[in-house]
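User: I'm new to structure prediction. If I give you an amino acid sequence, what do you actually give back? Let's try with this one:
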Amino acid sequence: MVEAEVSTLAVSEDAAPVPLVLLKGVDSEQVIPIFIGNNEAQAIHSALHGYQPPRPMTHDLFGAVLESMDGTLKAVFIDGILDGAYIAILELSLPGRDEPVYIDSRASDAIALALRAEAKIFVSPQVIEAAEEHEEFEPLEKQPPIEQHQVDSNPMATYCLSSERLEIFC
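Assistant: Good question. You get back a string of structure tokens that encode the predicted 3D arrangement of the chain. For your 170 residues, that looks like this:
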């Protein structure tokens, strides 16, 4: 797994523009584009800029519930692409448990949660390889606001690390 951090949000240059989050390897200049939905793009944008909505949104709610249980989100692992969607695992630390708790997640939700919790983000080499096939994107600042884009299905091939995923996390 490669440790990564959020670099910026962008929009693909495909026929139908799709929002994506650009991750950058912590110890490299490698850029990892992760296709996301409009709502997740807004949640990530809010977290990047420290925006606190008057009422908690879904990602804020999850963080509040976890905090109320004295739990912490330690890390997220983006470990596969299944049916065109990036998938991830949340690693939680909960009081009274000696072992971490692992929860399945979409990568976009995991990233939004990691930003709020200041948790580490890791990406598998296989996801990096698959993501490198789609490097056509523009920084979000050069595009119209995300709300104006309609998300179509992701043309990426299906890929999943199911056996490795089970060995590592189950």
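You can read the tokens as a compact description of the fold. Here is one thing that stands out. The longest strand covers residues 2-12.
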